[in-house]
Design goal:
Elements lengths: L1 E2 L10 H12 L7 E2 L6 H11 L5 E4 L15 H14 L4 E4 L1 H5 L1 H8 L3 E3 L3 H13 L10 E5 L2 E4 L20 H8 L2 E3 L2 E2 L10 H5 L4 E2 L2 H13 L4 E4 L8 H13 L7 E6 L6 H9 L2 E9 L3 H6 L6 H13 L4 E7 L6 H14 L3 E6 L1 E2 L5 H9 L8 E3 L9 E3 L8 H9 L5 E2 L16 H8 L6 H14 L1
Parallel strand pairs: 1-2, 3-4, 4-5, 8-11, 11-12, 12-13, 13-14, 14-15, 15-19
Antiparallel strand pairs: 5-6, 6-7, 9-10, 16-18, 17-18
Length: 473
C-alpha cells in the first residue's frame, strides 16, 4: 500500500488503516510505503521494489486537487510521476483506490494510465480482488472494479456494505502517533454515505447515498485505541456528524459513558440542521472543542440554489447554541454559485458578521465534479471556453480543477469578497499567502510551525488561536 499524499500538515490516511486490517484478516501480508514522510520518493520506491515482488501495489488517492479557485493546485501530475516510476520497475499490477479516486474513477484511471482501480469500500473489494489474483482466477466481476480493456474503461457498480460487518481495526498499520505529532490531530469515522442533495457535493458518489452507521461502542473502542497511542485530539471524518441526528447523539453518549470526554478533544463537521440544545450539551460533555458547520451561504435564495434545505434563521439558532455552550464554531461558505450576485454576497457576509461566529471560511467559486447536479448543469450549458460560468481547466471530463462562477460576477467575485471582509480577522480567505487568514491548508507554513510548537486540533481552530493570541500580546 502506498500513500502518495505529500500535503503538509499531514492528514492521516485513515482508509489505509481500515483496509490493511481487512487484508490481514484474509491472510495477506501488507507493507506500507508512506511517501508523506520521505525525503526522496524515488529512492524509497526503488529500495522497496529491489527487495520485494508484491502480488499487487495499492495506491490511495485522497485528493485530485486542493479544490480552491484561488490556487487550483492539480495534484494528479505528481501522482502520475509516481505511478509511471513504479511501472518502469515492476510488473506487479497497480490498483488505484481512495475517496478521491472514487469521485472520478474512470477519468483518473485514464489519466494515470493504470489498468485497475476500485471505487467504494476497499475493505471488502480489495481482499476479494487480491484473492482471485492470487488463485489465478478471473477477477473482472469484482464489485466496484474499474478496468481498461482495449483502451476502453469499464466499471462494475460498487457494493456499499453495512459497517456493522466490519471488524474493529487495530489502527497500527499507519503511524498514527507521528501523524498526530506532525499533523495535530488523529481521525475516526462514525459512518459513511450521505443522503443530502447538495448540487456540488461528490461525497454521495464516493460513499453512497444512504447512511451506513458504525455501532457507537465500536467508535468508542477505536477512540480508546488511539488514546493508547497518545492521540488525544481527533477529527470525526463524517461529512456531517449530526446526520442522522440520533446516531451522532448516541456516539456522544457512549463517549460520555466511558469517561473519554475528559481525556479527549475532538472536532467535527455538522449540518446546521438538526442542531439542538440537547446535541450541543452532549457534544460539549463528550469533549467536542470545535464545530465546522457546512453552511454554504446565508442568503435563503442561494441556499435553495445550492440544494440546501435549511435557512439563514437556522444558522442564527446554531450560533446562539454554540455561544451558550461556549463551543468554538465556524461556518464554511461557498460563494459564487448559480445565481450569485453582489447583493447576495453582501447579505451573506453581513449576516455572518451579525451572528459573530468564531471563524468563517470562504471558498470562492464552486469546484465542479462529474455526476453531481452542478456537473450536469455545466454539461447542459456547454463545457467550452465560451461558457462565462466556467473557469480553470475547461474540459468535459472535469478532471483538472474547473470552477463555476456566477456570470453575474465573473471577474468581480474575488474583489467583491475582499472588499466585504477587509480587516475582519474572523474570515479565512486566501490562496497562498502565509497569514492566519489563509484558508489554504496545503503547505501552510504557519500551521506547520504552530503544530511543531505543540498546537493541536482542527486547523481552523489552531489558526484562530494564533490570531487571537497574537492580538492579545
Amino acid at each position: 500500500m502506498i500513500n502518495p499524499n505529500e500535503m503538509k500538515p499531514p492528514v492521516t490516511p485513515i482508509g489505509l488503516d481500515y483496509i490493511a486490517s481487512a487484508l490481514e484478516l484474509t491472510g495477506f501480508e501488507v507493507d506500507l510505503i508512506d511517501l508523506c514522510f520521505v525525503s526522496t520518493w524515488e529512492q524509497t520506491l526503488e529500495a522497496y521494489l529491489d527487495d520485494n515482488n508484491p502480488l499487487a501495489i495499492g495506491i490511495t488517492i485522497r485528493n485530485t486537487d486542493d479544490c480552491l479557485y484561488l490556487s487550483r493546485d492539480f495534484i494528479l501530475p505528481r501522482i502520475k510521476a509516481i505511478t509511471d516510476h513504479i511501472k518502469e520497475r515492476t510488473c506487479s499490477p497497480i490498483i488505484l483506490g481512495g475517496v478521491g479516486f472514487s469521485v472520478m474513477p474512470e477519468p483518473i484511471l485514464s489519466y494515470l494510465e493504470v489498468p485497475l482501480g476500485l471505487w467504494g469500500d476497499g475493505e471488502w473489494a480489495l481482499p476479494a480482488l487480491l484473492m482471485k489474483m492470487r488463485q489465478g482466477e478471473n477477477f473482472y466481476s469484482v464489485p466496484g472494479l474499474i478496468y481498461k480493456t482495449n483502451e476502453e474503461c469499464r466499471s462494475n457498480p460498487p457494493e456499499f456494505h453495512d459497517l456493522h460487518e466490519r471488524p474493529l481495526a487495530r489502527r497500527d498499520f499507519v503511524d498514527n502517533a507521528r501523524y498526530f505529532r506532525e499533523g495535530g490531530m488523529g481521525s475516526v469515522e462514525t459512518k459513511r454515505g450521505c443522503a443530502q442533495t447538495c448540487i456540488y457535493c461528490a461525497d454521495p458518489l464516493a460513499k453512497g447515498q444512504r447512511y451506513r452507521l458504525r455501532p457507537p461502542p465500536t467508535v468508542a473502542d477505536e477512540i480508546e485505541i488511539l488514546l493508547g497511542f497518545g492521540v488525544d485530539h481527533l477529527h470525526m471524518c463524517d461529512s456531517e456528524f449530526n446526520l442522522p441526528y440520533e446516531h451522532g447523539a448516541r456516539v456522544c453518549e457512549e463517549i460520555v459513558r466511558r469517561g473519554l470526554g475528559e481525556r479527549l478533544a475532538w472536532y467535527a463537521y455538522l449540518s446546521p440542521v438538526p442542531f439542538t440544545e440537547e446535541l450541543a450539551r452532549l457534544m460539549s460533555q463528550a469533549g467536542c472543542q470545535g464545530i465546522c458547520f457546512g453552511a454554504d451561504h446565508a442568503d435563503d435564495r442561494m441556499l435553495h440554489n445550492l440544494g440546501r434545505t435549511f435557512t439563514a434563521a437556522d444558522l442564527r439558532r446554531t450560533a446562539t447554541l454554540c455561544h451558550q455552550y461556549e463551543i468554538p464554531f465556524m461556518y464554511d461558505l461557498l460563494l459564487g454559485g448559480p445565481g450569485e450576485t453582489k447583493e447576495s454576497l453582501t447579505r451573506a457576509i453581513s449576516f455572518m458578521q451579525d451572528i459573530v461566529p468564531s471563524r468563517v471560511g470562504i471558498s470562492a467559486g464552486v469546484r465542479i465534479y462529474p455526476g453531481t447536479r452542478l456537473g450536469e448543469l455545466a454539461l447542459e450549458e456547454g463545457v467550452h471556453h465560451g461558457n462565462p460560468s466556467l473557469h480553470g481547466v475547461v474540459q468535459p471530463d472535469m478532471l483538472a480543477p474547473i470552477f463555476y462562477v456566477s456570470p453575474h460576477l465573473r471577474d468581480e467575485l474575488i474583489s467583491t469578497i475582499n472588499a466585504l471582509v477587509a480587516g475582519d480577522e474572523r474570515f479565512f480567505f486566501g490562496g497562498g499567502e502565509a497569514t492566519e487568514a489563509n484558508y489554504n491548508y496545503n503547505d501552510n507554513s504557519i500551521l506547520m510551525e504552530a503544530i511543531r510548537r505543540g498546537y493541536r486540533g482542527a486547523f481552523w481552530n489552531i489558526l484562530r488561536r494564533l490570531a487571537e493570541e497574537g492580538r492579545n500580546v
